UniProtKB/TrEMBL annotation, chain A:
Subcellular location: Mitochondrion inner membrane
GO MF annotation, one: NADH dehydrogenase (ubiquinone) activity
Transmembrane segments: 27-47, 59-77, 97-116, 152-171, 178-199, 205-222, 234-254, 274-294, 319-341
Protein name: NADH-ubiquinone oxidoreductase chain 2
Keyword terms of this UniProt record: Electron transport, Membrane, Mitochondrion, Mitochondrion inner membrane, NAD, Respiratory chain, Translocase, Transmembrane, Transmembrane helix, Transport, Ubiquinone
Stretches assigned to coiled coil: none
Entry function: Core subunit of the mitochondrial membrane respiratory chain NADH dehydrogenase (Complex I) which catalyzes electron transfer from NADH through the respiratory chain, using ubiquinone as an electron acceptor. Essential for the catalytic activity and assembly of complex I.
Annotated Pfam families: Proton_antipo_M (PF00361)
Enzyme Commission designation: 7.1.1.2
GO biological process assignments: mitochondrial electron transport, NADH to ubiquinone
GO CC annotation: mitochondrial inner membrane
Catalytic activity: a ubiquinone + NADH + 5 H(+)(in) = a ubiquinol + NAD(+) + 4 H(+)(out)
Source taxon at top rank: Eukaryota
UniProtKB/TrEMBL annotation, chain B:
Enzyme class, UniProt record, top EC level: translocase
Domain of life: Eukaryota
Role description: Core subunit of the mitochondrial membrane respiratory chain NADH dehydrogenase (Complex I) which catalyzes electron transfer from NADH through the respiratory chain, using ubiquinone as an electron acceptor.
Molecular function GO terms recorded: NADH dehydrogenase (ubiquinone) activity; oxidoreductase activity, acting on NAD(P)H
EC numbers, comma separated: 7.1.1.2
GO cellular component, one term: NADH dehydrogenase complex
Coiled coil regions, renumbered to chain: none
Gene3D superfamilies: 1.10.287.3510
Record InterPro entries: NADH_UbQ_OxRdtase_chain4L/K, NUOK/Mnh_C1-like
Cell compartments where the protein resides: Mitochondrion inner membrane; Mitochondrion membrane
Name of the protein: NADH-ubiquinone oxidoreductase chain 4L
TrEMBL record, chain C:
UniProt topology in membrane: Multi-pass membrane protein
Top EC class of this enzyme: translocase
PANTHER family to which the protein is assigned, alphabetical: NADH-UBIQUINONE OXIDOREDUCTASE CHAIN 4
Residue ranges of the TM segments: 6-24, 31-53, 59-77, 89-110, 116-136, 148-167, 187-208, 220-241, 247-270, 282-304, 310-331, 343-365, 385-410, 431-450
Subcellular location: Mitochondrion membrane
Biological process annotations from GO: ATP synthesis coupled electron transport; electron transport coupled proton transport
Function: Core subunit of the mitochondrial membrane respiratory chain NADH dehydrogenase (Complex I) which catalyzes electron transfer from NADH through the respiratory chain, using ubiquinone as an electron acceptor. Essential for the catalytic activity and assembly of complex I.
Protein name, as recorded: NADH-ubiquinone oxidoreductase chain 4
GO molecular function: NADH dehydrogenase (ubiquinone) activity; NADH dehydrogenase activity; ubiquinone binding
Catalytic activity: a ubiquinone + NADH + 5 H(+)(in) = a ubiquinol + NAD(+) + 4 H(+)(out)
Length: 346, 91, 452
């Protein structure tokens, strides 16, 4: 495929988001969703390897099916209640169908199996786009859908998703599957955040994107797909290994890093709405997933084999060193953000 | 309208339960789209006047979807040797 | 008080940019200089000795801040030999890790907002984890690190939920406002109270939540052991003291359960220590036993209890850190922590034998030491709470004396094993370290007001 076409696809993906965010009628929301999916599919199968093609087919089937269900739900909604927007939820069957189709598109817990399979087949960079940018359209629709009536079920799905994302990753040794499970867990937190506050959901999403992009990019640089390969990377490329390790700890939500900030915000808002059960369930999920984050960061930053020789890295020079500094500072910025936001909230 | 819903649900079931060929999955997808097209047409009868325009948009996009589905079918049969769903890696 | 944090930031920067041959000197001198600004916080006439921004130093935190700032140069001096074979980059990262840990600790002790305290409390986890798992000796260190992490996180996440819920109910978590039990109210249930103190009980550790501690101590390098025993356990004591001082509630049912566990832990830990063959593990279990009395003193909720617990924490911080560094001298020479093989150290290193002697006696609370004073005061408070507790405390004190003497006798007396007869001599760096532990611990008995 000619690489000159790719800006076109990027344009289509961007315009899909614009279309969704600016439309009031569900048909245009559907259009935006379809546009985003169809533009993304050639990017997934860019290298034509058999695993990638297979992952693309799975992604295509799921997304097309979810889109058809969305349209069906919209038809039911319009023909029975004569409403065309998504934001006024009246408990119609069509609206429930739309919600479930969006959950399927996002990969929240009852419909999450495709995420792991698809991400495992893809390269890191398409995987990164899949888990970050491609969630924007779905989340925008979800934010419009959230209301009092369906908030509880979304919260239950979110908590289940946080828990399942932790549980599924426990035995994994494939890095991409780990990232997929981590994304499912974070999606759970994200959706729970969306239920109690729209701004909160978008803020958590931005945090997740900022935290996960360095991890994806440096895993791509390291070219590791298995946990054992990551172990050797502390010797071959210490800087990248440390960024991945710190990034995973930040994704785990440990306090000095920025990941904690998002979790704290979500917990605060849940407790402000007296949803103690949801908060406890999310926290249990975070604890379970901490185990595999911790294991990956052991592999990245700590474990040295008996026959590994430490290379001497020049400390003061080097592009990679400054990049490391920048990214670690970015992660540590969480503390400053915490200070700023907490002073605002007083 | 009820017929359209029935057709859609049958196609959805077919898509979910197909275990042999990718081609039949794509056919079920098309059937869903046709059912939706039918529904839009019926809605224009009941007085929703913009639904025919929406039907054109739906047709366009379902054609796009079908063509990219067929392209993926070609890709998968080139890389896996067949379009059997059994050859997929379901983990 | 932000200049303390800024001082540590400056220390990190100077460790980053200095020449390789000066790294240890600069780190040790710089961290030792930090004791000057921190002594400024000592203001014995006032309840709260300083407020600046989000930081407040009052009678609870001053002594612990000074202890932790004092321990940083000691940690750096102690681990110089251990790090000698590592590359320059990793030596710097090691030092930076410790400085970050210490600044997080200082922030935790000085924080006046409970959520800032929580964040700093959690921030100490990661550097400690790195110390244990990156620079530990055996491969069991990963298990130890995971134990450490999970025990602490399972304990502290309920604290986060409780604090946030508390903020929702009261509208403030600032210690300046809730100090003195202003909001002591009736809607705090047992469960809420337990959620608030669970993190600190695991951190201290209370008997039942203590399994991570011996593992972490055995696997950690010397600096990790010193900071764990010296300050990190005190972080738990400090938090417990802070929360029970602000919100009372030691009379609740969960408070009494904690009491029972503390008294039981005192006896059981003494008995366990008598059967240890691993030197570091023995010292680790002995800290659990000592901390049980701290929990008891704090849970009485009386001034005597708080005073005793605070003095006991300071004393234990210096003495157990000293014992760990003594054990490490032997470990660096013989590469073994086995108590059965370490015979006759006093013949090999006579002056170190004197150090062992003094430290063991301080550990068992011999009369003119602050350990005895703290134990007495805390015991009086606990005795006042229940008369029958004196049985457990008495047995516990006897067992403490027994295992301290057992440790001293096993390691110092007897025949030296054949393969240990050509070990390195002690260096003046190590004697300096010994003196820096023992002199404050011995001196403090003359001025007990410094600690409370």
């Amino acid at each position: 495929m000619s690489p000159y076409i790719s800006p076109l696809f990027g344009l289509a993906m961007g315009s899909s988001v614009l279309l969704i965010s600016s439309s009031t009628h569900w048909v245009f929301v559907w259009l935006g969703l379809e546009l985003g999916t169809l533009a993304f599919i050639p990017m997934l199968a860019w290298w034509h390897s058999s695993l990638e093609v297979e992952a693309t087919v799975k992604y295509f089937i799921i997304q097309a099916m979810a889109a058809a269900v969305f349209f069906f739900g919209g038809l039911v909604m319009t023909s029975t209640e004569y409403i065309s927007g998504l934001s006024q939820f009246v408990g119609n069957f069509g609206e429930v169908l739309i919600m479930f189709s969006i959950i399927m598109k996002l990969g929240l817990v009852p419909f999450h199996y495709w995420v792991v399979d698809v991400v495992q087949g893809l390269n890191y960079l398409p995987g990164m786009v899949l888990l970050t940018w491609q969630k924007v359209p779905g989340l925008m629709v979800l934010v419009q859908l959230v209301s009092m009536q369906n908030g509880l079920i979304l919260l239950i799905f979110g908590a289940l998703s946080a828990f399942w994302g932790g549980l599924g990753g426990l035995g994994q040794t494939q890095m991409r599957k780990l990232l997929a499970f981590s994304s499912i867990a974070h999606l759970g937190w994200l959706v729970s955040g969306c239920v109690v506050g729209t701004m909160l959901g978008s803020m958590y999403f931005i945090l997740y994107v900022v935290l996960s992009i360095p991890v994806f990019v440096f895993l791509y640089i390291l070219n590791n797909t298995h946990l054992n390969q990551v172990r050797a990377s502390l010797v071959s490329n210490p800087v990248a290994a440390m960024v991945v390790g710190v990034g995973f700890l930040s994704l785990a939500g440990l306090p000095p890093f920025m990941g904690f900030f998002g979790k704290w915000l979500v917990l605060t808002w849940l407790l402000n709405n007296f949803l103690v059960g949801g908060a406890v369930a999310l926290v249990v999920g975070a604890l379970v997933s901490l185990f595999y984050y911790l294991r990956v960061s052991y592999m990245c930053m700590v474990i040295l084999g008996p026959q590994q020789i430490m290379v001497s890295l020049s400390w003061r020079k080097g592009f990679m060193g400054s990049l490391l500094g920048g990214l670690v500072v970015l992660n540590l910025l969480g503390l400053l953000l915490v200070g700023g936001i907490s002073s605002l909230s007083k | 309208m009820l017929i359209m819903a029935l057709v859609f649900c049958i196609a959805l079931l077919g898509l979910s339960l197909t275990q042999t060929h990718l081609l039949s999955v794509l056919l079920c997808l098309e059937m869903m789209m046709v059912a939706l097209y039918l529904g839009l047409g019926l809605m224009s009868l009941s007085g929703l006047n913009y639904s025919l325009m929406v039907a054109l948009v739906l047709l366009t996009f379902s054609a796009c979807e079908a063509s990219s589905g067929l392209a993926l079918l070609v890709l998968i049969s080139r890389s896996h040797g067949s379009d059997l769903l059994k050859s997929f890696n379901l983990s | 008080m932000y200049h303390l944090i800024l001082g540590y930031v400056g220390l990190v920067l100077s460790v980053c940019i200095c020449y390789q041959k000066n790294v240890w000197r600069i780190a040790q001198l710089g961290s030792l200089l930090m004791i000057v600004p921190v002594l400024n916080l000592l203001n014995l006439n006032m309840f709260i000795s300083g407020i600046s921004g989000a930081l407040t130093s009052d009678f609870m935190s001053v002594a612990l801040v000074i202890l932790s700032v004092w321990l940083l140069p000691l940690m750096l001096i102690a681990s110089q030999q251990h790090m000698a074979k590592d590359t320059g980059l990793y030596q710097r990262i090691f030092i930076i890790c410790q400085v970050i840990l210490m600044s997080a600790l200082v922030l935790a002790f000085l924080a006046s907002h409970l959520l800032l305290f929580y964040i700093a409390f959690e921030s100490t986890l990661l550097p400690t984890l790195m110390l244990i798992t990156r620079w530990g000796a055996q491969k069991e260190r990963y298990q130890a690190g995971t134990y450490f992490m999970f025990y602490t996180m399972v304990g502290s996440l309920p604290l986060l939920i409780c604090l946030v819920g508390q903020y929702k109910m009261m509208g403030s978590l600032s210690l300046d406002l809730i100090l003195g039990g202003m909001y002591k109210g009736e809607y705090f249930t047992n469960l809420w109270w337990l959620g608030c103190i669970l993190a600190f009980l695991v951190k201290l550790p209370l008997y039942g939540g203590h399994l991570w501690l011996p593992k972490a101590h055995v696997e950690a390098p010397i600096a990790g052991s010193m900071v764990l025993a010296g300050v990190l356990l005190k972080l738990g004591g400090y938090g417990l003291m802070r929360i029970s001082y602000a919100w009372g509630a030691s009379a609740l049912l969960s408070g009494e359960v904690v009491f029972a566990l503390a008294l039981w832990g005192m006896v059981v830990m003494g008995a366990i220590c008598l059967r240890q063959t691993d030197l570091k593990s023995l010292i680790a279990y002995s800290s659990v036993g000592h901390m049980a009395l701290v929990v008891g003193g704090i849970m009485t909720g009386t001034t005597w209890g708080y005073n005793g617990a605070m003095i006991l924490m300071i004393a234990h911080g210096l003495v157990s850190s000293c014992l760990f560094s003594l054990a490490n001298y032997w470990y660096e020479r013989s590469h073994s922590r086995n108590l059965l093989g370490s015979r006759g150290m006093i013949i090999l290193f006579p002056l170190m034998g004197a150090g062992w002697f003094i430290a063991s006696l301080m550990n068992l609370a011999l009369p003119p030491t602050i350990n005895l004073f703290g134990e007495l005061v805390a015991m009086v408070a606990v005795y006042n709470w229940s008369m029958f507790s004196v049985i457990f405390m008495g047995v516990g004190a006897v067992l403490t004396a027994a295992y301290s003497l057992y440790m001293f006798g096993m390691s110092q007396w007897g025949e030296v094993l054949e393969n240990y007869k050509n070990l390195h001599v002690m260096t003046s760096r190590e004697y300096l370290l010994l003196m820096m532990h023992l002199v404050p611990a011995a001196y403090l008995i003359f001025n007990l007001g410094l600690m409370f």
